[in-house]
Amino acid sequence: MINVTIENFDAEVVAASHQIPVLVDFWAPWCGPCKVIGPLLEKVEVDYAGRFKLVKIDSDQEQQLSQAFGIRSIPTCVLMIDGKPVDGFMGAVPEGQLKTFLDKHLPAADAAESSEELDAIQAQLYAGDPQAALEKLHSALEADPGNDDARYDYVKLLMEGNLLDDAEAALAPALKAIPRQLRFEALEQFLDAIRFVENDERGTWAPEQFEALIAANKRDFDTRLAKARVLMVSGNWTAAMDELLEIVMRDKAWNNAVPRKTFVAILELLTPPKAKADPAAAGKSAGGIELMGKVVAEQDPQAQLVAVYRRKLSMALN
Predict the structure, then answer these.
(1) Is 34 tagged catalytic?
(2) pLDDT digit of tens for each residue in the chain (318 aa)?
(3) Please, which residues bridge with residue 44 across strands?
């Protein structure tokens, strides 16, 4: 449990909530119900063993924070996730109700352990040991076939190592799930593009060969799609999306909408992972608290690129 003021709010609540859910307890020394729920909150924090962080704000001393959250009575508890309030409750609720509230929003204990394991695997990748990362991901999937994060990283790493048959086999269970997750559909489209480049003679074509055919027939969608797949596999993402967009603008439904699906797959593959906040780099004054989503962090160039091409696709489809 941490006492929070306007000075440390950004680091202890906003930034911290990007790493772990933060339960904010607004209280006051004169409040009788606050003295009831306060010890209960501290007990549950211990019981949950690091699945959330508890902070306390004296609403009398920190009126700016109370006003920012719209606190009208105390005790009031607000749960912060990813820098924003997601839920809350008022009053001295019983322990069972408190745990029901938390369980609705917090990851399960084994999920938290899995997240830590994936962080360790990412560290091995950064250290240049993809084989060790593959082995750990394989073990994680054997222990828990429902670990979608591990499956996604495993398939992606297999594809990067050109172990396409293994990647296809590892991807198959995710593609059978209902509903399918977009990130696995994206890997399927990428795998299809790699297979095309490996097996089709156009996979080795020079750009001029594609351009000559397209110049002769702007509606040669098969050539455009082939060119887009070659560009995609070579990592020329924006040129690939530009080519796919040309197809979508002319015929949205062509070839069972594969160009649109491939375009969406590229957007998904390019979307930066959600960054873990660095409390030391929070960098905002408490007057700019991200409570209601009014303060938006400046996007990095890749996120901006994704946003631009999402708008382009939306315009082409409307």
Answers:
(1) yes
(2) 789 999 889 888 988 888 889 999 999 999 999 999 999 999 999 888 788 999 999 999 999 999 889 888 999 999 998 888 988 999 999 999 998 999 888 876 555 445 555 555 555 554 556 788 888 888 888 888 888 888 998 999 899 888 999 999 999 999 998 888 899 999 999 999 999 999 999 999 999 999 999 999 999 999 999 999 999 999 999 999 999 999 999 999 999 999 999 999 999 999 887 654 444 444 443 334 444 433 334 457 888 899 899 999 999 888
(3) none
Considering the candidates 34, 93, 98, 106, report the single residue annotated as catalytic. Answer: 34
For 272-310, b/e burial (b = at least 16 CB within 10 A) is eeeeebeeeebebebeebbbeeeeeeeeeeeeebbeebe
- The yes/no answer on whether domain 2-109 falls in CATH 3.30.70.2200 is no
Q: How many CB atoms lie within 10 A of CB 30?
A: 9
The CATH label, of 1.10.287, 3.30.390, 1.25.40, 1.10.3470, for the domain at 110-180 is 1.25.40
Cα separation, 51 vs 48, whole angstroms: 6
CA distance 228 to 208: 14
Q: Which residues of 237-271 are buried (b: 16+ CB within 10 A; e: fewer)?
A: bebbbebbbbbbeeeeebeeebbbbbbbbbbbbbb
Among 22, 23, 31, 158, the active-site one is 31
Active site residue 31: yes
Please report, for the chain, the start and end positions of each structural domain, with discontinuous segments joined by +: 2-109, 110-180
